[in-house]
């Protein structure tokens, strides 16, 4: 009753921000992401009838707050498969956990995949994605590789559907991540979403426009149209941050170096370098580019004052059982 799975973080190009009123962590909006092959979470789950409770270690250290979230996620897998046994979970990230790089997405995708395999569940990826989505919205997307779309499907067989729309080798984009500050983020995503839903005058409009954003991005991806994808991805990112900023009190996830990086990326693209930016609920800037642009992007972002480190990744595959 043990299995090990690996999964990779993903970065949304059309952003998820806001939860549907029906609860159960169903997103209010669809999203479209790329899965990053160069960063990996590896998680081992061992179910043991002798355990009195679940146990969780991250990078070798017991973590109480995270353990409760892990336990709640295991409950969803156990409920789905009709099992009542506790588990010992150990997880490792080969990238800095504190750097705000969506480690919860790869973490919960790997956890659900390993737990389900350890229990011999036989669930298909779409079903695993819906389980992972209940643990962390963006985790559903890390079940799949390449370009991935997640949509709320009210009235469907499941509350959400997640699917791959293009495999990683069908359009091998690259991502350079400029780390502008380490340490935990100021306001976690769930708390930030709730505040925004309650107080932003623009939130309803954000939800209303979301299907059009998704259609535009899906068309750009399927047509491998970099300019079109750059336009809609930067728009979705800036529109999400506009909604965050318009909450009361406004959520300011950026620092000065974040903004300087956005300007650098725009300058590069103005000179013909195929690159665009996206930023999540934190200060790091993700620059998405065509492979030939990587050296220029690294050089430009590395020279921005306040950039502490650069990470680099190509696209990768979905969560899989390795042991
Ligand atoms: O899955 P969560 O709760 O970490 O929320 C993710 C929110 C964003 O990263 C800001 C956007 C996204 O779609 O990943």
In summary, what is this structure?
The protein has 323 residues and is an alpha+beta fold.
The CATH top-level class label of the largest domain: Alpha Beta
Tell how many strands the DSSP assignment holds. 14
The CATH architecture of the largest domain = 2-Layer Sandwich
Strand-residue proportion: 15-25%
Separation of the first and last Cα atoms: 11 Å
Helix-residue proportion: 25-40%
Order of SSEs: EEEEEEHEHHEEEHHHHEEHEE
Q: Could you tell me which ligands this complex binds, including any ions or cofactors?
A: (3R)-3-hydroxy-3-methyl-5-(phosphonooxy)pentanoic acid
Tally of alpha and pi helices = 8
Kindly identify the CATH topology of the largest domain.
Answer: Ribosomal Protein S5, domain 2
Mean pLDDT: 95
For the biggest β-sheet, the strand order reads 6-5-7-4-1-14
Describe this structure in words.
The protein folds into two domains: 2-168, Ribosomal Protein S5, domain 2; 174-314, 2-Layer Sandwich (Alpha-Beta Plaits). Helix content is 37%, strand content 22%. It is built from eight helices and 14 strands. A hairpin with a 2-residue loop joins β5 (55-58) and β6. α1 (64-81) runs antiparallel to α3 (125-135), α2 crosses α3 (125-135) and α5 runs antiparallel to α6. The radius of gyration is 19 Å and the shape is globular. It starts with a strand and ends with a strand. The model has no long low-confidence stretch (mean pLDDT 95). The protein binds (3R)-3-hydroxy-3-methyl-5-(phosphonooxy)pentanoic acid. (3R)-3-hydroxy-3-methyl-5-(phosphonooxy)pentanoic acid binds at residues 12, 15-17, 31, 104, 136-138, 189-190, 280-281.
């Amino acid at each position: 009753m043990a299995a090990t799975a690996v999964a990779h973080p993903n970065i949304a190009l059309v952003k998820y921000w806001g939860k549907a009123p029906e609860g159960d962590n169903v997103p209010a909006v669809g999203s479209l992401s790329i899965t990053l092959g160069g960063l990996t979470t590896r998680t081992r789950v061992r179910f043991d009838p002798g355990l009195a409770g679940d146990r969780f270690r991250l990078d070798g250290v017991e973590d109480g707050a995270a353990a409760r979230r892990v336990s709640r996620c295991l409950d969803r897998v156990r409920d789905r498969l009709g099992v009542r046994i506790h588990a010992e979970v150990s997880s490792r990230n080969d990238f800095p956990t504190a750097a705000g790089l969506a480690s919860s997405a790869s973490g919960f995708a790997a956890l659900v995949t390993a737990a389900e395999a350890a229990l011999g569940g036989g669930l298909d990826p779409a079903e695993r994605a819906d389980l992972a989505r209940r643990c962390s919205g963006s985790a559903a997307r890390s079940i799949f590789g390449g370009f991935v779309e997640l949509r709320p499907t009210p009235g469907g067989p499941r509350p959400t559907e997640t699917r791959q729309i293009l495999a990683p080798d069908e359009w091998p984009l690259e991502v350079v991540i400029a780390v502008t500050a380490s340490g935990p983020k100021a306001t976690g995503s769930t708390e930030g979403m709730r505040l925004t839903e309650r107080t932003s005058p623009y939130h309803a409009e954000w939800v209303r426009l979301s299907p059009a954003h998704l259609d535009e991005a899906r068309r750009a991806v399927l047509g491998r149209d970099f300019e079109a994808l750059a336009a809609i991805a930067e728009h979705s990112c800036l529109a999400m941050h506009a909604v965050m900023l318009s909450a009361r009190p406004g959520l300011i996830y950026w620092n000065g170096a974040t903004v300087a990086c956005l300007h650098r990326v725009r300058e590069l693209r103005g000179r013909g370098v195929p690159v665009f930016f996206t930023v999540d609920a934190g200060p790091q800037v993700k620059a998405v580019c065509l492979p030939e642009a990587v050296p220029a992007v690294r050089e430009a972002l590395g020279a921005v004052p306040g950039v502490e480190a650069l990470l680099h990744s190509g696209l990768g595959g979905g969560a899989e059982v390795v042991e």
